[in-house]
Design brief:
The structure holds two protein chains of two kinds. Chain A contains 14 helices and 16 strands. By secondary structure, chain A is an alpha+beta fold. In chain A, the strands form three sheets. Chain A has an eight-stranded mixed β-sheet with strand order 5-4-3-6-2-1-7-8. In chain A, strands 9, 10, 11, 14, 15 and 16 form a six-stranded mixed β-sheet that branches. In chain A, helix 6 runs antiparallel to helix 11 and helix 13 (467-519) runs antiparallel to helix 14 (523-544). In chain B, helix 2 crosses helix 4. Chain B folds into two domains: 15-153, Winged helix-like DNA-binding domain superfamily/Winged helix DNA-binding domain (Arc Repressor Mutant, subunit A), CATH 1.10.10.10; 159-374, Dna Topoisomerase Vi A Subunit, Chain: A, domain 2. Chain B is α/β, with parallel strands linked by helices. The chains are: A alpha+beta, B alpha/beta. The interface between A and B is large, with 45 and 71 residues.
């Protein structure tokens, strides 16, 4: 599936390039405004809208990501409610409501009705989001598949509530706001109601349920409530009241910027020239570096206004970024979840018998980009994904799962090429008593933290398997493994003891009967005494904690006079 | 040499006395176990180790002997528990079912008598007869006794014919048997021969053949009558009854015993077990080994001497391997045997006794055996 997606993405990118080239030849400079909505309308796979299950996950992801950012922005403990409803006409209604800071009325249209408008309408900072397109594309997707507007309700908590319907004018990429309503009320946050078609809800490992579960695991300060189409209410309760440290407001580093990120920045920038935009909106870009970029992009006049930068030009600049030697980005831009928080979270969601969390020190890849790996292994309890459950909803059959995150955002797709998957495959699990963990009740948690995540595709669902990254993840997993192995070994020993006990008890009655035959002593009395001794012996062996027994000595087989000789004739 | 002997001088101890002695040994063991139970200690039985690590060859007595190494088997030890239980099953059966009722049983009888599913489990006390057989040997060595004294018998094997009258007993019934009047089959050697008494005998030696076919051939040729000997076959590896009978013929009647096997390592091994005892039954070498037995043939030298080269068989790899092992045994260290084994390893051929039939059918009784015995052409 992942492979198919990657292929689809590659081919749409090729198609996009061709289309853009054509636009450049014949059309005017308003290509950008005209084509962005149009282009993505045609190439929705690029944005994660491929497949019915995946499309729904992407929609929820976009909304929830914005909600998390909006709460973080206000230093608020997020409460997010997600409701999925199957409508009679086959449409699916998605409602997401948060208690974040809300959106000022004048920004609502751009935030949810204009692509590449800078969806993080307040400030630029480390984003969780997938593309600079985010929730606005959901609006477009709703509109394309059902013809319906997206209903928005928001308030900044100032007792003024604002509601409206939003659609996007596909030709101009401008929001169309209708049915506005303003009233007084005690409310703060954002609620979005939208209808979609060509989406499906299920509990598979690619679905909304799994996405929210993982989001809850990586964000212990969040409380998420999900109402499923069958009206079942699932609550992923808050594990910690500690609000994560706010992302420092850093300008982006040229490395790790995607074309759409750059297009996004262009929209936000107040600079008059591309050259000054590069210096003012990025970190580590000096006048000298701009000159270097100019030589690398001879076809682009860096002295012109950034406003009419085309997609192809942005692509060329991003490519040039990769060829320049940059001063490394700042280390303290890394925001980790933290060992204690992960522990609380895993305890909360997975209730494991045993777990180990490791937060590794920051390291760098590509010669200077800082990153850090947080990893955990949880064993038992509700760990692993459930293949089947009993009538009480407890797991009966489980299999191991790899929980992949980049900056706390769950990555549900494209697992095969991901550095996390490759690192997990690389570990010799037999050393940690976890051989075949894929079929054990095990959750392996990996959060890759960096301001610049080297994603492998446009989908941002897989981390490039750079050597330093894979090695670091591997080390983190092995560190967890060592701890879990201790527990599992102890578990094995306990099982062994139980086995031992059962063997002793099994033969006691037989032995008592024989001794009764030999001595005439009362059998019940013999059994009672032998059982007492067996208990004591088992306890002693348990205390010693290891095999305190020699094995049965090799005895020469009985000489079988009957058959040992060679047979005649 | 012993001609016309009034046998029976070393009259066997009354069977009942042996039983009392065995019973006493079992009671002592049981009492020790009971004491351990009362003290809350781990139950154990000491069992002399059988097998090459605890077996030595005594040059003086020419016996394979059991060393003094023993293994302590515990009830409360995962690796021992099952076998411990099985050993006690044997003890209970021997005491309650056999000794107390004055009955004997086969190993298989015991297996079926004591095999059952342990209550509350899916496990059987004994899965295969091999397990109870091993437990029986454990029990006999632990008591420092032997199987016959436990009233356990193996499948009888071996036949005998010749100028001898014996008495045998089935419980209280005593039968007199004339071994010269046993027809074509001879008298089947019982699995327990302690009760057999030698009465009249007119023989100068015992010829024991590994193969039934040789017995039949020589019996048909009236070899034992002509040569004044007792003729016996073991039918392959000698059973305990046959071995014990040979030992008694040798020690009580002073008859020399000549052994006839195929010319190959397995033949030699059958011979050595009868003569010196075996590793697995090292604890019974005294009772079962006929230390004065001589190896008449076939030897590898016979192949040359009797010009049998054309009827030999190519030795297999397992034969070579076995020969190499045997070359290292202390009881094959006599120079004559080392030469014999070397010859075999050199030529890599073996021969069956029946290969003598290539000359003519009666060659063995008219030429080969008389010549060999006359010239005392034996291996030690």
């Amino acid at each position: 599936m992942a492979e198919k997606d990657a292929k689809a993405t590659a081919s749409t990118q090729a198609a996009a390039k061709a289309e853009i080239a054509q636009a450049q030849d014949g059309q005017s400079h308003d290509y950008k405004e005209y084509s962005v909505a149009e282009f993505f309308k045609k190439n929705r796979q690029m944005l994660g809208y491929s497949g019915k299950v995946r499309s729904l996950t992407t929609i929820v992801h976009e909304y929830v990501t914005n909600s998390l950012d909006a709460a973080e922005e206000g230093g608020i403990l997020p409460d997010i409610n997600v409701e999925i409803e199957n409508l009679a006409d086959g449409h699916v209604r998605v409602s997401v409501e948060d208690n974040g800071i809300g959106i000022p009325k004048q920004f609502v249209g751009n935030a949810l009705g204009k692509l590449l408008s800078g969806t993080k309408f307040h400030h630029r900072k480390q984003k969780r989001g997938q593309q600079g397109i985010g929730a606005s594309y959901a609006t477009l997707f709703s509109q394309i598949t059902t013809g319906k507007p997206t209903r928005v309700k928001t308030s900044l908590g100032d007792y003024k509530v604002y509601e409206c319907d939003i659609t996007i004018d596909v030709k101009t990429n401008e929001p169309a706001v209708k049915n506005e309503r303003e009233y007084s009320g005690k409310y703060r946050g954002l609620r979005i109601d939208a209808e979609f078609s060509e989406v499906t809800y299920n509990r598979s490992e690619y679905g909304v349920y799994e996405y929210l579960r993982r989001t809850a695991i990586a964000n212990p300060h969040v409380q998420i409530t999900l109402i499923e189409p069958n009206k079942e209410i699932v609550v992923f309760p808050r594990a910690s009241k500690e609000i994560p440290k706010k992302a420092k407001e850093t300008r982006p580093h040229p490395l790790g910027i995607s074309t759409s990120d750059l297009m996004d920045i262009v929209q936000m920038s107040k600079a008059r020239k591309i050259s000054s935009m590069l210096q003012s909106d990025f970190t580590r870009v000096s006048a000298d570096k701009v000159k270097e970029l100019a030589t690398l992009c001879p076809g682009i006049d860096l002295e012109r206004s950034p406003k009419n930068l085309t997609w192809a030009e942005a692509e060329a600049i991003v490519k040039a970024f990769g060829q320049v030697k940059w001063i490394a980005p700042d280390m303290d831009s890394l925001i980790l979840i933290g060992e204690k928080q992960i522990e609380m979270s895993l305890k909360n969601i997975l209730q494991p018998e045993q777990m180990k969390v490791v937060c590794r020190k920051p390291r760098v890849f590509r010669g200077g980009i800082p990153f850090a790996v947080e990893a955990a292994i949880a064993y038992g309890g509700k760990s692993g994904s459930w293949v089947s459950t009993d009538e009480h909803g407890n797991p009966v059959e489980t299999k191991g799962e790899l929980l992949r995150f980049a900056n706390r955002v769950p990555m549900l797709f494209d697992a095969g090429t991901c550095a996390t998957t490759i690192a997990a495959k690389d570990v010799d699990w037999s050393r940690y008593n976890l051989k075949g963990w894929e079929s054990l009740p095990v959750s392996i948690f990996i959060n890759f933290v960096s301001v610049y995540v080297p994603y492998t595709g446009a989908g941002k669902l897989s981390i490039s398997a750079e050597e330093e990254i894979v090695e670091e993840i591997r080390n983190a997993l092995m560190e967890c493994g060592r701890d879990i192995a201790k527990y599992l070994n102890a578990l094995d020993r306990a099982k062994e003891q139980e086995h031992r006990r059962s063997i002793f008890f099994r033969y006691i009655v037989e032995v008592a009967e024989c001794i009764n035959d030999l001595t005439g002593t009362d059998k019940a009395l013999l059994v009672a005494k032998l059982k007492k001794t067996a208990e004591e012996k088992t306890a002693i062996l348990l205390a010693q904690g290891e095999e305190a027994e020699e094995s049965l000595e090799e005895v020469g087989a009985i000489e079988d006079e009957e058959t040992n000789g060679k047979d005649e004739e | 040499m012993a001609a016309k002997k009034e046998a029976g001088q070393a009259a066997p101890k009354q069977i009942r006395e042996y039983d009392a002695e065995t019973m006493q040994k079992i009671q002592t063991l049981a009492a020790a176990l009971l004491e351990e139970i009362n003290k809350g200690e781990n139950l154990h039985i000491d069992i002399p180790v059988r097998g090459s690590s605890n077996v030595t060859f005594n040059e003086k007595t020419k016996k394979i002997e059991l060393g003094d190494k023993f293994a302590r088997r515990y009830l409360f030890n995962v690796a021992h528990a099952r076998r411990f239980m099985q050993t006690l099953l044997v003890a209970s059966y021997v005491k309650k079912d056999l000794l107390e009722n004055n009955l004997t049983a086969t190993l298989r009888d015991l297996y079926y008598a004591k095999k059952h599913t342990i209550p509350g489990t899916k496990e059987d006390t004994i899965d295969e007869q091999k397990e109870s057989d091993l437990a029986i040997v454990d029990f006999e060595v632990a008591l420092d006794t032997f199987r016959e004294r436990l009233h356990l018998r193996a499948e009888p094997k071996g036949r005998i014919a010749g100028q001898m009258v014996v008495t045998d007993r089935v419980k209280d019934k005593v039968d007199t048997i004339d071994l010269s009047k046993m027809g074509s089959g001879g008298w089947a050697v019982p699995s327990i021969v302690e009760q057999v008494e030698f009465k009249e005998i007119d023989a100068e030696y015992v010829l024991v053949a590994e193969k039934n076919a040789i017995f039949d051939r020589l019996n048909e040729d009236a070899y034992w009558a002509k040569q004044k000997c007792l003729l016996m076959t073991t039918g392959g590896q000698a059973a305990r009854g046959a071995r014990r009978l040979l030992k008694r013929l040798s020690s009580e009647l002073n008859l020399p015993i000549y052994c006839l096997t195929d010319a190959d390592p397995y033949g030699w091994y059958i011979y050595s077990c009868m003569k010196y005892g075996s590793m697995a039954l090292a604890h019974e070498s005294d009772r079962l080994g006929s230390k004065d037995m001589k190896f008449l043939g076939m030897s590898i030298s016979d192949i040359e001497h009797y010009d049998l080269r054309s009827v030999t068989i190519k030795a297999k790899d397992v034969d070579i391997k076995r020969a190499e092992e045997m070359k290292a045994y202390d009881w094959f260290k006599a120079p004559a045997w080392q030469r014999e084994i070397d010859k075999f390893l050199d030529k890599k051929i073996k021969a069956e006794i029946q290969s003598l039939s290539s000359k003519n059918l009666q060659y063995i009784s008219t030429t080969y055996l008389p010549e060999k015995i006359k010239s005392q052409d034996f291996l030690p």
